[in-house]
Amino acid sequence: MLKQLLFLPIALLSLAPAARAQQYEIHVKIEGMRDSDIYLGYSYEDKRYVVDTAPMDGKGNAVFKKGKRLEKGVYFVVTPGPDYFELLIADNQKFSVATKRANLFDNLEFKNSPENQQFYGYQKFMREEQLRIDALKALQKKNEAGKKDSVEIYRKQVEAAENGIEAYIKNLAAKNKGNFLGSLLNALRQPEAPAFDIPESVVNKDSVRRLYTYEYRRDHYFDNFDFADAGLIRTPFFKSNLDFFFQKVIYPAPDTIIKYADRLIELSRANNEMFHYITEYLFQYYQASEYMGHDAVVVHLADKYYLSGLATWASDKYKSEIKERVNRMRHSLLGNIAPELLLPTHENTYVSLLKTPAELTVLCFWEPNCGHCKKELPRLWSLYQKFRDKGLVVFTVYTQYKRPDWDAYIADHQYDWIYAWDGVEGTKGGKPATFSTGSDFRTLYDIRSTPTVFLLDKNKRIIAKRMDVETLEKILNDRLSRNP
After folding, report:
1. Looking at domain 342-482, does it have CATH number 3.40.30.10?
2. Average pLDDT rounded to a whole number, residues 9-22
3. What is the pLDDT of residue 430?
């Protein structure tokens, strides 16, 4: 399957700087257009950035020119409308392009840029072939009701067309080996899986072959990417390929993610800009992830690349912020033994989390005046009634220091689970006051909101966290069905 080059509409134009010294000079002539401004820009992640503006004279001529070089990438020229066409900015940055206003794309012609002329030929070929494939698929679907022979004929024609596209791109990439167009075209190709020799004795040979093919493509997904060529970053498809790989290709378990993240980052070290981009992409991506357990990926990336000093672009302030953040995350990662909490109870005795016997323990940090807690704690109580006879214990920690609020909630609800808090009552300046016991539970469990729920196994190992009661119930049902 091809990773198609995207032709996206321009949603937003914003100014961004170009880079490096020397000069670029791009002459543009658009027949039928005059006295207008046109713009030169490039794609970066999900946005497009303008780097230059050129006024068009009365004959449709304009020049993008500055005393600096542009970074390599897929750029676009935007005209009023907005209509646009794409071009490559690579080593040769002095060339001309001509077209007609009536149809910018179909009339493109480049001078002094064989690479751009070939890129245009690729785009035109892809557009025509895609239209042909779409027409064949429409005929295939139209005949699904009764003409099976016709369906098979169209299916084979689609397959042949797709194979033809693959061969075309492979051939064009080979002709452009060593330049940016070659790098770009190779990156659009997935590695071809070998023909696996599956013994006849194997049951479900086709399923096994599909599994082997998937594993091969997973492990070789980036083989055709030239990570020494940072121009790939400024293309419409680069980030989408990273997103696809980490969202759809690999299994989203922390250990698996860490394995493939490290592998990709190691490949990216062929180029400092690429290394910076991919490391930062992964770090930010998994910080924003809502999947349970992905904080382990963040801690790993922080330790290995940022706090170790490998991320030379990171300022001392940025690294200090990262260190502070991950130090709150690392204590309560999935698979860790839960940090000990030795806290006063509502009855003014002390209770130890780790010494509380239970087949499973729900650890819930909460407060009475939290709107979400008011909804979730009654649900947690109902869940507790359902599973308490199977060895479930609920250990709650009140996160605030207003004893009267805590007392009132307990009196109103009469939930007979463990109530603990971090408070010690005393006096300050002759007046009653509440002091922390110094348990540091907010850091140990990275408590930033309430309720925050953890599930611990018999050995007090963290097996799930930061979930609502509905999710907790599904996990309990699944776990107890496997271990009745």
Report:
1. yes
2. 41
3. 82
